[in-house]
Amino acid sequence: MSVVYIALGSNLNCPAEQLRMAISALRQLPLSKVVAVSSFYGSKPLGPQDQPDYVNAVLCLQTELAPLALLDELQRIENQQKRVRLRRWGERTLDLDILLYDNLIQQTERLKLPHYDMQNREFVIIPLLEIAPSLVLPCGTNLVELARKFSDHKMEKF
User: Fold this and answer.
1) Residue 112, CA atoms < 13 Å, CB-side half-sphere
2) Considering 50, 87, 95, 102, which one is annotated as catalytic?
3) Taking every annotated instance into account, which residue ranges of this chain make up the domain 7,8-dihydro-6-hydroxymethylpterin-pyrophosphokinase (predicted)?
4) What residue segments make up the domains of the chain, in order of their start?
5) Which of 83, 85, 102, 152 does the annotation list as catalytic?
6) Catalytic residue at 92?
7) Global confidence as pTM
């Protein structure tokens, strides 16, 4: 089984409830098992600031699904929860991103592994650190060291 880390985010239609529903759907994935889920964190939007704040989390999944098959399942869950893509980094009911898939480094048109910008996002690194404090990224960077640059984050944990 591969170990995968997935970022969850929502800022529409009761965001915390959207994350809870997504976690429930992820627990139902075939050939997969949810191993850990971080706390939920409130964060400011990454993109346009004329949208509500986000609720974010990171989930660890063990799966036998191949990366693109897993991506298809994540997009199916997003669609079930009425995900609409109106603008880049805009508001959404649910966003599910594969952060890491084992130590795989891959770039395709549909999927970049590790996630292309995860190292610059406190709303990813801090929840990831919570559930995988000894993690070393495929590039060799220790997660604890990476998280130091976010030590003064202002995200609310709930």
Assistant:
1) 5
2) 95
3) 88-99
4) 2-157
5) 83
6) yes
7) 0.96
